[in-house]
Amino acid sequence: MRAAARLRAAALALPLACAAACSTGGPPHAAGGGAGGEPAAGPWRPAPGTDWQWQLSGPLDLGVDVPVYDIDAFEASAADVAALHDRGVRVICYVNAGAWEDFRPDRDAFPAGLLGEGNGWEGERWLDIRQRDALRPLLAARFDLCRDKGFDAVEPDLLDGWLNETGFPLTAGDQLAYNRMVADLAHERGLSVGLKNDLPQIPELVGDFDFAVNEECAEFGECAALTPFIDAGKAVFHVEYALEPEEFCAETTGLGLSSMAKRLDLDAWRAPC
């Protein structure tokens, strides 16, 4: 589900050049205040350095004093989102877009032919992202859930299957096409969307996404690859699991990242930079 499950492609060169300026496509989402960025004619785009909280397990703590929350699409309620909006917080909807999960209520909607190898997390299997026509309505239904609960944005997880042993011969082109479909589905629903990891394709995708979410770039010496988002005026929401804040904060905040230490289960605990 998260970075610890990924196989690192150590030999893969990470392009560091900044890509084209960001696009403005898609209508703004009406819910929520202006936290983390000024209102604009396009999707909400949080500014570099915006503080955030990311919680996917445990009793949801709605009291963290930050302008942006990232919480689970299925576990969070519309009332949770509304409570955060009431104090001006923008809310990101966590959705697994790259793997099937046997614990989700829509698990039976995924045909067996879409399911590949396990990804290292119990109950999860990689999806065959080449089958975009089959996956599009399944993701659309999940994004509809995010929209209907009032979320402002989507964090689609596991957008880097092509770098992993999925059981499918995925190519860079397959991943680009899939990730752009994901971004379009979010924007069609008035939701902003973040690029999760997939560092090698940032120069090609920075214009399609409104912010980035990254795990462990400091531990693996990859943080400079995220600077195209910063250069485009878009936040990079970043966490480290194995490092202490004093081991990475100077580097990552110097680059403009919104960094904190978290436990791997992503409960309420956080140690922000």
UniProtKB/TrEMBL annotation:
Keywords for this protein: Signal
Residue ranges with Low complexity bias: 40-49
Signal peptide positions on this chain: 1-30
Annotated segments matching region Disordered: 27-49
Keyword Transport annotated: no
Xref: Gene3D superfamilies: Aldolase class I (3.20.20.70)
Positions of the Glycoside-hydrolase family GH114 TIM-barrel domain: 52-269
SUPFAM superfamilies: (Trans)glycosidases
Entry keyword annotation includes Protease: no
PANTHER family per record: ALPHA-1,4 POLYGALACTOSAMINIDASE, PUTATIVE (AFU_ORTHOLOGUE AFUA_3G07890)-RELATED (PTHR35273), ALPHA-GALACTOSIDASE (PTHR35273:SF2)
Protein name (database record): Endo alpha-1,4 polygalactosaminidase
